[in-house]
Amino acid sequence: MSYEDALYESWEDYLDQKKGMDEAQVTGSASSYARKYALNGLYAIDDTKDADTDEYQSAQQQQTERKPQPKKKAQPKKSEAQKAIETAFKLAIVKNNGDEKAAAVMMQTLMKEMFPGKSSKDLTEEEAKALFTAAKEN
Question: Does residue 34 come out as left (phi exceeding 0), alpha (psi in the -120 to 50 range) or beta?
Answer without folding.
Answer: alpha
